[in-house]
Design a protein that fits this description.
With 355 residues, this protein is an alpha/beta fold. The protein has helices at 13-20, 54-65, 78-88, 97-104, 106-115, 156-167, 239-251, 284-289, 296-304; strands at 3-7, 25-28, 42-44, 67-72, 123-124, 137-141, 151-153, 191-195, 201-208, 214-221, 224-226, 229-235, 256-265, 269-276, 320-323, 353-354.
Length: 355
């Protein structure tokens, strides 16, 4: 069995523990308090993702621990890992650096979808004619995550208010009336304007192999989300969504996991509103729905060992609902798990080594 290295693990204890049940798992995060580190066999202290030593450290870890797959659990280093694979042979299950860069920027992703004949809502940049756009629209950061700073504009006047407000270019007194002081932008970065989609919002959790073949695509409803992360939903069979996800994954040759968010708008039809080339927040959904031996961590461990797996799109259990909750770990003075539990029956972490 090849080891697996997970980066930016944060609080994704669920993902790390699933891999730790299948193979030796390394969890990399610069914070010693990142709870997901404690689900892995090996905790790894790494430099910041924008540090020039970040990739060399990952390459050394892969060689020392026999890592066959590196996967990001955050958006922040996907392009870095892609360049590491292209330039240094890092065994990262991520898309090309071009696709990683485009999908990190929502407007670039929109243009990529247009070039790739993938459905995307009407979208434009603030410099275009706001009066000519069809409203309602959402004004949101191009590189936003967690559903932060997204505002609904019902007409061009509201769009003209929110764009400079989010970009940080609106100062005191520029709107009608006095703002009562300088206004701090909540984002302070480029934004875009996108048609506000109606109808149900759904996500499709996908997995691509090292050749960019889509192995499976598992749709789910989004009953409730918090901070852009689904906390309640239902896995469903939907031939149209499964086919779209498979086409999108293979058109963009996405390696590794991806979560595609779509709306089924009564006027626009199905359109992709977000494309995250990593595990989604509702990771438990495709894990519960997968057939025995075919959870995404199990398939990734097999891919890391060099096995070629045949696509099995549409083969999963549905309907099946999930609801997520929080758990916690107690750490001693040396930041080691005490293994005490508030409520008996919680999953104990494995024995840990320091890398």
């Amino acid at each position: 069995m090849s080891a697996v290295l997970l980066t930016g693990v944060g609080k994704r204890y669920d993902i790390v523990s699933c891999f730790a049940r299948e193979t030796k798992t390394l969890a990399a995060d610069p914070s010693p308090m990142a709870p997901a580190r404690y689900a892995a066999h090996v905790q790894v202290d790494v430099p910041p993702m924008n540090d020039r030593e970040y990739l060399p450290v990952l390459l050394e870890l892969c060689e020392r621990h026999g890592v066959g797959a590196v996967l990001p659990l955050t958006d922040l280093d996907i392009e870095v890992l892609a360049r590491g694979r292209e330039e240094h042979g890092l065994p990262a299950l991520v898309p090309s650096s071009e696709v990683a860069r485009a999908t990190f920027d929502k407007f670039e992703a929109h243009e990529l979808f247009l070039r790739s004949d993938l459905p995307t809502p009407p979208t434009m940049l603030p410099g275009a004619d706001l009066e000519a756009f069809e409203y309602p629209a959402v004004i949101k950061p191009r590189r936003g995550s967690g559903a932060r700073s997204i505002h609904l504009a019902r007409d061009a006047a509201e769009a003209r208010f929110f764009v400079p407000y989010l970009e940080g270019t609106r100062a005191r007194g520029e709107a009608s009336g006095d703002w009562g002081g300088d206004v701090k932008a909540p984002v302070g970065e480029p934004v875009m304007i996108q048609r506000a989609m109606r109808g149900p919002e759904l996500s499709i959790d996908c997995l691509g192999d090292a050749d960019g073949r889509c192995l499976n695509a598992i749709p789910r409803t989004m009953i409730e989300s918090r901070g852009g992360e689904s906390v309640k939903g239902t896995v469903v069979h939907d031939d149209e969504l499964e086919a779209l996800a498979c086409r999108a994954m293979e058109t963009l040759r996405v390696r590794g996991p991806a979560t595609i968010q779509v709306f089924r708008d009564p006027d626009v039809g199905i359109a992709i509103t977000d494309f995250n080339t990593r595990f989604g927040g509702a990771f438990p959904a495709p894990t519960f729905a997968a057939l025995p031996g075919r959870t995404y961590p199990q398939l990734i461990v097999r891919l890391a060992a060099g096995e070629r797996i045949e696509p099995h799109v549409g083969e999963f259990t549905a309907p099946l609902s999930f609801t997520r909750y929080y758990w916690q770990l107690e750490l001693d003075a040396d930041l080691r798990p005490t293994r005490r539990e508030i409520v008996p029956g919680g999953p104990p972490p494995p024995n840990l080594d320091q890398a």
